[in-house]
Design goal:
single chain; globular; 3-stranded antiparallel beta sheet; 386 residues; mainly alpha
Length: 386
């Protein structure tokens, strides 16, 4: 599109479809202020009862899922054990992700009006899920500030490698795609935390656990990074104690597997909300905050999983525009924002597999992992997947 132009937008939409539509700059019709004005004011209000009620509900879901699995394993024939554990891992992974999302809300200030309450809840939840609360909240704020920015973006910044390179072609092949997915599932979250993998190139090797990672943190953040590390150490100490009492296999089956699945959800959801072969990334010259925020994509894992994950998947556009809005407000605000944005609202509900949106979501995840690998500069100076 180029700054203030429209011809590029039209050609991109004709070539790639409506998801390629990018807001012109400058725009008088659509601004952050105009979007806020389109949303009923009460949807920005946070409720202690509503937010803490969701926290209690999530904890009960975790406990009930665990107890039900233990009960099923004790009464069913031993041959059913693999099925019981598989079902437990699958659903407990969703439950833990729901708790992780609430901690993420705390980091944004969208959980309650109290910074203290938010930080206590977020710190405990994220530490229990082996995530450095303050450290990640700081870098995640940068992700929101520089969404789809090729230079300063924080997560899933695509490569600019030559698409004809053998390594790129392999990454797009079925075997290469499966390998990438396995690596993301098993190592992706902590590779990012330890080395800032998938972040901006100039920040490669920077660790979320080091107060001296100046590309990620300011000097004033040092004690917050240390506090985050202490939370992680405390959780690891509890896990070590559990291993000494019940054995490694019990900790592995009951906690580590669903926690790893939770980590995979975090990586996959972030990737899918900001990556589509028809959605551009931007160099510094073409990027604006609003262009980046409106390059976010609403998707769906099916009504039940969307609800369990506090609508982080199907109301992500609103979340990126107003990150301190409570998640229940973001979901309710989405129809208003969709109407106001028109073609600039990005949503890809995906395909259904065997009648399931959840399976369709993962089918689309595989497709995006295989196609959205590298970007190049288009005629409009935007960075398109190729």
């Amino acid at each position: 599109m180029g700054k203030g132009g429209s011809a590029g937008k039209s050609s991109a939409v004709e070539r790639l479809g409506p998801l390629a539509a990018t807001i012109p700059e400058p725009s008088k019709e659509i601004t952050k202020g105009s979007i806020r004005a389109a949303i009923p004011p009460h949807l920005f209000q946070r409720s202690y009862v509503h937010s803490l009620g969701h926290l209690v509900m999530d904890l009960l879901w975790v406990a009930a899922t665990w107890l039900l699995a233990l009960q099923a394993a004790s009464v069913l024939p031993s041959g059913f054990a693999p099925l019981v554990w598989a079902a437990y891992w699958f659903y407990q992974g969703i439950n833990l992700t729901a708790l992780w999302v609430l901690a993420h809300e705390c980091g944004h200030g969208g959980f309650t009006d109290s910074r203290l309450v938010n930080d206590i809840v977020g710190f405990v939840l994220h530490s229990a899920l082996l995530t450095p609360y303050f450290s990640w909240a700081i870098t995640h704020a940068k992700h929101h500030h520089y969404t789809n920015h090729m230079t300063n973006g924080e997560t899933w910044v695509p490569s600019t490698a030559n698409p004809e390179k053998a390594s790129v072609k392999f990454a797009k092949s079925p075997i290469g795609t499966i390998r990438r997915i396995v690596v993301v599932a098993l190592l992706g979250w902590y590779t990012y935390l330890f080395t800032n993998a998938t972040g901006a190139k100039q920040n490669a090797g920077q660790s979320h656990f080091s107060p001296s990672s100046r590309a990620l943190f300011k000097a004033k953040d040092a004690n917050l990074v240390r506090a985050s590390n202490l939370g992680m150490i405390a959780c690891l100490a509890v896990l070590a104690k559990c291993v000494s009492v019940w054995g490694f296999s019990a900790v592995f089956f009951n906690y580590l597997v669903p926690q790893t699945i939770c980590n995979f959800y975090l990586c996959a959801i972030t990737f899918m909300q900001h990556t589509h072969e028809s959605v551009p990334h931007f160099n510094s010259e073409e990027w604006t905050w609003l262009r980046g925020a409106l390059s976010t994509i609403d998707r769906s894992m099916g009504s039940h999983v969307d609800w369990r994950l506090h609508h982080i998947v199907d109301s992500h556009v609103v979340h990126h525009i107003f990150s301190d809005m409570p998640f229940y407000g973001a979901k309710a605000a989405t129809p208003y924002v969709k109407e106001h944005l028109g073609i600039y609202y990005k949503s890809n509900l995906g395909s259904k597999v065997l009648g399931s949106e959840y399976l369709g979501y993962w089918k689309d995840f595989y497709s995006s992992m295989s196609r959205a690998v590298v970007v190049g500069v288009g005629e409009d100076n935007f960075m398109w997947f190729r």
